[in-house]
Write a structure and sequence with these properties.
alpha/beta, binds S-adenosylmethionine, 21% strand, Rossmann fold
Length: 296
């Protein structure tokens, strides 16, 4: 789970804003692994929606390739092309595919979007998670993606949902409601990130309308819950600790001093009130997927 729509805050990097996807690689991979149940359910839904044999799948903005490999496993007849603009993440994808014996069906393609859309080829299923919101013209990007969908094929965009929650409202650290305030400042940072993108266009995030305007049919949204209740195992705790660290770093200048102190305590591995040691920490969020088909 990454990106401001329920995930990693923005630090720095290749989309000319302030993100460093390469550095975020291991964190992106762990987050996507934690979201495995969400991705599996979404993929099952995609399988129901496709009106044709799925031979070629594009995972656009594939990051470390967790979903690319999952799709290859769930669609055994298909080749999957992981498309991304960060070479180190594509390398991570190739390593992951090799570990799973999927090298012959999961390949990678470097693409700087939106410029390289036309070069990635057509597909029966196009999955793009938390990536279109990193492109200045979201509506234009959805149009480009829709053009690549073969007749009977599906375009699925994982965008939006519910913010990550991980603590009770009163967490016994500073003022109650810390996570809600962190979400507000992260949203402000997200808006600033979007405004700074090349060719940024202010768009209403009506993803179903964008899919329909792009010439696809039956635009529908479904939301999938990620619910890891307390007590959490160590891997999700580690991921959460890193996630809060990234979010705090991205929003430090927007947070009140007492909230920064509380967040510092939360990410301190030795603090009994911190994420790594407290008993009440959980992961609760939801990912919305918007999909539509090409009937023509
Ligand atoms: C938030 S991550 C999402 C990764 C993965 N889809 C997931 O849901 O975990 C966004 C991904 O989009 C890629 N990306 C962002 N801007 C891009 C651009 N302009 N061209 C190509 N890839 C881009 C990044 O390298 C990163 O892997």
């Amino acid at each position: 789970m990454t990106g401001h729509q329920g995930g990693t805050a923005h630090t720095q990097g290749h989309d000319h804003t302030d993100l460093d996807w390469n550095v975020l690689g291991p964190h992106l991979e762990q987050g996507a692994e934690l979201s495995g149940p969400v991705h599996r359910q979404a993929a099952e839904w995609m399988r129901e929606r496709t009106g044709r044999a799925v031979r070629r799948i594009l995972d656009v903005g594939s990051g470390p390739g967790v979903v690319s490999c999952l799709l290859a496993q769930l669609f055994p007849e298909a080749e999957v092309v992981a498309v991304d603009g960060t070479e180190e993440l594509l390398e991570r994808t190739r390593d992951r595919a090799a570990r799973r014996g999927l090298t012959d069906r999961v390949t990678t393609r470097y693409a700087e979007l939106p410029g390289d859309f036309a070069s990635v080829g057509e597909a029966d299923l196009i999955w793009s998670s938390k990536t279109v919101h990193h492109l200045g013209d979201q509506r234009g990007a959805v149009r480009e993606l829709a053009r690549l969908v073969r007749p009977g094929g599906v375009l699925a965009l994982a965008e939006g949902g519910l913010p990550l929650n991980c603590l009770p409202y009163n967490a016994g650290l500073g003022r109650p409601g810390l996570m809600a305030r962190l979400e507000v400042v992260n949203r402000e940072a997200f808006t600033a990130m979007r405004e700074a993108l090349p060719d940024s266009v202010e768009t209403v995030d009506d993803w179903r309308a964008m899919l329909t305007e792009a010439g696809l049919d039956g635009a529908t949204s479904r939301t999938f819950l990620l619910d890891l209740p307390a007590p959490l195992d160590t891997p999700p705790r580690r991921w959460l600790q890193a996630e809060l660290g990234h979010r705090c770093g991205a929003a430090a200048d927007r947070l009140a001093g007492d909230d920064l102190v509380a967040l510092d305590r939360l990410i301190d591995p030795d603090d009994p009130a911190g994420i790594m040691r407290r008993s009440d920490v959980f992961v609760l969020s939801a990912q919305t997927v918007h999909s539509a088909v090409r009937t023509g």
